[in-house]
């Protein structure tokens, strides 16, 4: 039920921490992957690693998820290469520090463009293929920050929080509409994992200790622990699961 043999996945933000983990998880489970990212050089290295470790194909496509033409071209290239798309993992995201008082409008718009518009655009150009095939798995990467927020002003990320809450709303809306087409749409909400976006937290012992104290597990996540939930939502094991927001956080949001 958890195997993905014969499936084709698309991963955005593929060269980042969670994107890379998802790419490897898909390949390890038998899928071939179109890996999308703005950083073309990092994609080449990832593609080679996938081939060497799993024997699967990782097809590199440079893509700016906030730009409609770039997304349209990336999806067309991916479908031309593989003939279909079964799974879409909308992972690309950025975070810029600042409260509503301090973040410049330009930075607010930049966060929204990548984190929310990016999911809209990828879905806009992938869903028609899935509807035609009457099969699809869409997983959107949100965050526990969609439902939990801190009160430490120096690490406030209000644009990020708002964008990830928007992901949650878009996920449930899409899930409701496309369930009849045998397309499931779910979101994962990672807690603290060591990635580029969380470098601010990992540079502060105070922030790390604060997170550990508030987390029932007493620790942050290992990047490999994100693989299981992604594969579950991407496989036939979750055929009757849609519109869900699954926190992968060691119990952080349970407190």
Biggest sheet: strands side by side, in what order? 3-2-1-4-5-6-7
Which architecture per CATH?
Answer: 3-Layer(aba) Sandwich
CATH class: Alpha Beta
Any idea what the shape is? Answer: globular
**CATH-defined topology:** Rossmann fold
Taken together, the total number of domains comes to 1
Describe the protein.
- By secondary structure, this protein is an alpha/beta fold.
- Helix 1 (17-28) packs parallel to helix 2, helix 1 (17-28) crosses helix 8 (227-234) and helix 3 (68-82) packs parallel to helix 4 (105-133).
- It is globular and about 50 Å long.
- It has one domain (8-195, 223-248): Rossmann fold (3-Layer(aba) Sandwich), CATH 3.40.50.
- Strands 3-2-1-4-5-6-7 form a seven-stranded parallel sheet, sandwiched between helices.
- The protein is built from eight helices and seven strands, in the order βαβαβαβαβαβαααβ.
- Helix content is 45%, strand content 15%.
- The longest helix has 29 residues, at 105-133.
Question: How would you concisely characterize the structure shown here?
Answer:
The longest helix is centred in the middle third of the chain and has 29 residues, at 105-133. The chain starts with 7 loop residues before the first strand and ends in a 7-residue tail after the last strand. It is α/β, with parallel strands linked by helices.
Labels describing this entry:
single chain; 255 residues; 7-stranded parallel sheet; globular
Describe how the helices and strands are arranged.
Elements: E1 8-12, H1 17-28, E2 32-37, H2 40-54, E3 58-62, H3 68-82, E4 87-90, H4 105-133, E5 136-141, H5 158-178, E6 183-190, H6 199-202, H7 205-214, H8 227-234, E7 245-248
Parallel strand pairs: 1-2, 1-4, 2-3, 4-5, 5-6, 6-7
